[in-house]
Design goal:
This is Peptidase. It contains six helices and eight strands. The protein is α+β, with helices and mostly antiparallel strands. It is globular, with a radius of gyration of 22 Å.
């Protein structure tokens, strides 16, 4: 079933469950925030990719306005709640400055593949260890999903959009596993070369082979 949703296109991909802090300065989006407060509406963030508004986007809800500036600008906190598909895009909502679209909600299958998750977890642990991001891995709950880690996997914006377009957790697992199997050896080798470069010119304490 379609509905009209206010839109705030941005040059990024937002995943369901993600909390996003934004600085609002344009008059049209200041108006949007006021409408969120007064009418308790949500709005959508479709990624602006390849010089155009994407077909898919993420619906977000305003959590709070943390700061009002004298010139009317604001700092806000939001949380993403779901994914939608734009059926028709309007540069301006009726009587408003901001954009809108006729959208349809996309249903998602959250079931995970346990075997895939084990492999992904091992690869993520290796990746974060190589990059010095072990703290991020330690803070991951056992129930984490792909959306929880997607921004920390070195994916391009186009690849993140591919994850957003997937309609099941298992499909996202397969995408991420393929990405990690491709990039992890490259990253591990790069880190090994960096370690070797740091040793050049230093006294080395090496154990000679026993023969």
């Amino acid at each position: 079933m379609s509905r009209l949703l206010a839109l705030f296109p941005l040059n990024l991909v937002v995943f369901p469950g993600e909390k996003l802090n934004l600085h609002i300065f344009e008059p049209r989006y200041r108006q949007l925030v006021r409408d969120c407060i007064e009418a308790d509406i949500t709005f959508g963030i479709p990624p602006y990719l390849n010089e155009g508004v994407s077909e898919l986007g993420t619906e977000v809800r305003l959590l709070s306005v943390d700061k009002h500036y004298e010139n009317g600008e604001m700092d806000i906190r939001t949380k993403a709640v779901g994914v939608f598909r734009i059926r028709e895009f309007f540069r301006q909502a009726p009587g408003k400055l901001y954009a809108a679209g006729t959208v349809e909600d996309i249903r998602d299958d959250p079931d995970q593949d346990a075997a895939l998750k084990v492999r992904i977890t091992e690869y993520v642990q290796q990746l974060y260890g190589a990059l010095g991001l072990r703290k991020l891995f330690v803070e991951l709950p056992p129930t984490y999903c792909i959306f929880d880690i997607a921004h920390n996997l070195g994916l391009s914006t186009d690849q993140e959009y591919q994850l957003l377009a997937a309609t099941s957790e298992q499909e996202r697992q397969e995408i991420v596993l393929e990405h990690l199997e491709r990039v992890l050896p490259v990253i591990m080798e790069a880190e090994r070369l960096k370690d070797r470069a740091r040793l050049n010119g230093h006294f080395k304490n090496l154990t000679p082979p026993n023969f």
